[in-house]
Specification:
This protein is an alpha/beta fold and 471 residues long. The chain has two domains: 4-233 and 449-462, Rossmann fold, CATH 3.40.50.2000; 236-444, Glycogen Phosphorylase B (Rossmann fold, 3-Layer(aba) Sandwich). It has helices spanning 21-33, 76-95, 107-123, 143-149, 167-170, 176-182, 194-206, 236-244, 246-258, 277-290, 312-332, 352-357, 373-381, 413-424, 428-444, 447-459, and strands at 4-10, 35-45, 60-64, 67-75, 132-136, 155-159, 188-191, 211-214, 217-220, 223-229, 263-270, 298-305, 340-343, 361-364, 389-393, 406-408. The protein has a ten-stranded mixed β-sheet, sandwiched between helices. Strands 13-12-11-14-15-16 form a six-stranded parallel β-sheet, sandwiched between helices. The longest helix is centred in the last third of the chain and has 21 residues, at 312-332. It is globular and about 70 Å long. The two termini are 29 Å apart. The protein binds adenosine-5'-diphosphate-glucose. Adenosine-5'-diphosphate-glucose binds next to helix 1, strand 11, strand 12 and helix 13.
Length: 471
């Protein structure tokens, strides 16, 4: 059997739990298949620090159960241009439709390319001929092209965890043509939703004049690539078991005791401008303003884990949220009731199911999101006899699958407040019916389905190369 090699920017010990969708999903996959997980070590070498040049630097290797973790350090300047610069200063905002937040510094693309070349040079000698390579996310789009340039002929798949915008927005990215051309070095390219896949098709047809070979296959630059939607899921059984374990149960009991006379609303996010936290706070404020019967009852618990604090747009959003929470609590709070409890930190993963289960409503209202796993976790954690209600942004990839949620436009503050009110007062029969349907979808398309479908498709697809490829 072929060995699976997963490559992503960050690598985590799959036996431990982490916050962040990609780390959680990949840990599930690798724990099942075994193999190698390659990526950045989390360490940067400062200018002037003694030691070998990047190319000669030794790799870090660590066996974690069935998974071999291999990581490399990056020079500070390369890391800044690759990670903070092109990946999170250009690709992340533009892929999330936020052209206004992008920093189009021409130096970034060079650092991004250099880091990808270094990843390729370090990974190449570790590969076996029959390895299956699965590369993840926007940090590493050109990695297959760099590996091919070094002679790799293995099957290589790519999965984009974030949305792909329509061609007009995509074309705002400096180097967009180079970036999309690099996708043709893969055998299979996967997206979260049909919408993202359709944007890819439109782009390659219009900008790369690719030939449509049917059934998701495209031909351009003397290569073919297979593309499709593979919506990511969660490990449902694992999350159910987590909810039944002692920490999950204790959390549930503590929350239901503490808030016995209240109705809890919950939001759990990385602190990121794509998650729509200020809009969510404003909708909650409108709920209290327009539907006063919810005052003294509805309590929003918002957990936002620290994320990418070295990027300016992230500190701005932090201050905005703190000020909104302060003003809502100041205007509506009572001596014995605080409308919003905001925590800027992680919740230990074993406690999450208990927190979700104790909540009547989840607010998952990103302005744009590739998928959003919190929406799925919330549904799975509910008591089927008395389930809570999911208020979900129609701009999350999850909305394509989770049609029985209350779908909202998070920019429309009043409409979102109406939906939250509806959720808080939804009759139990309707809650059960919606929950049953949502749970069935989430179970059917869980993380194992995602992984198996992607890898099976990859195993049956190999790019055809004819003539001289552009590489
Ligand atoms: P993220 O943007 O990180 O992931 P998401 O899908 O919601 O978003 O995953 C977050 C994960 O981290 C969930 O498992 C959640 O429970 C956990 N988490 C988040 N905040 C936490 C907190 N404060 N405390 C504890 N745990 C927390 C990216 C894309 C998404 C896509 C995933 C997977 O942006 O659109 O769904 O990858 O592909």
């Amino acid at each position: 059997m072929s060995r699976l090699v997963v490559v992503s920017n960050r690598v985590a010990d799959p036996r431990k739990t982490a916050a962040g969708g990609l780390a959680v999903a990949l840990a599930e996959v690798l724990n099942n298949t075994g193999g190698m997980w390659f990526g950045w070590s989390g360490k940067t070498i400062e200018p002037g620090e003694p030691g070998p040049h990047a190319q000669e630097r030794p790799l870090h290797t660590h066996q974690a159960g069935p998974v071999k973790l291999v990581t490399m350090d990056l020079d500070r300047q390369d890391y800044d241009a690759y990670y903070g610069g092109y990946s999170n200063g250009v690709l992340w905002p533009v892929f999330h439709y936020r052209l206004d937040l992008a920093d189009f510094d021409p130096a970034y693309i060079t650092g991004y390319r250099k880091a990808n070349q270094l990843f390729a040079q370090k990974l190449r000698p570790l590969l076996r001929d029959d390895d299956i390579i699965w590369i993840h996310d926007y940090h590493l789009i050109p990695l297959a092209a760099e590996l091919r340039a070094l002679g790799c002929t293995q099957r290589i798949g790519f999965f984009l965890h974030i949305p792909l915008p329509p061609p007009l927005i995509l074309a705002a990215i400096p180097g967009h043509d180079w970036l999309i051309r690099a996708l043709f070095a893969y055998d299979l390219v996967g997206f979260q939703s049909n919408a993202d896949h359709e944007h890819f098709c439109r782009y390659v047809q219009a900008e790369a004049h690719a030939q449509d070979l049917g059934r998701g296959r495209w031909r351009a630059f003397n290569r073919t690539v297979q593309a499709g939607a593979f919506p990511i899921g969660i490990d449902v059984d694992e999350f159910v078991a987590l909810g039944q374990a002692s920490e999950g149960r204790e959390m549930y009991e503590r929350m239901t005791r503490e808030y016995s006379r209240r109705q809890l609303l919950v939001g759990v996010d990385r602190l990121d401008y794509s998650k729509g936290l200020p809009h969510r706070m404003q909708a909650f404020r409108s709920l209290l303003q327009n539907f006063p019967e919810n005052r003294r009852v509805a309590t929003l618990i918002q957990i936002a884990s620290p994320s990418r604090e070295e990027v300016d747009a992230y500190t701005d959003i932090l201050h905005e949220i703190e000020s909104l929470c302060g003003s809502i609590n100041g205007n509506y709070g009572e001596l014995d009731w605080m409308p919003v409890r905001y925590m800027h930190r992680n919740v230990a993963r074993p406690r999450l199911p208990g927190l979700y289960r104790a909540s009547r409503v989840a607010l998952v209202t990103p302005l744009r999101d590739g998928m959003n796993l919190v929406a799925k976790e919330f549904v799975v954690a509910q008591d089927p006899a008395d389930p809570g209600v999911l208020v979900l942004s129609r701009f999350a990839g999850a909305a394509e699958q989770l049609k029985e949620a209350l779908l909202v436009n998070p920019y429309d503050i009043e409409a979102t407040a109406n939906a939250i009110n509806l959720a808080l007062h939804m009759p139990i029969e309707e809650r059960r019916t919606r929950h049953q349907a949502l749970l069935a979808t989430i179970r059917r398309c869980d993380v194992h389905w995602w992984c198996n479908t992607f890898l099976e498709t990859l195993a049956h697809t190999q790019a055809e190369v004819s003539g001289t490829p552009w590489l």
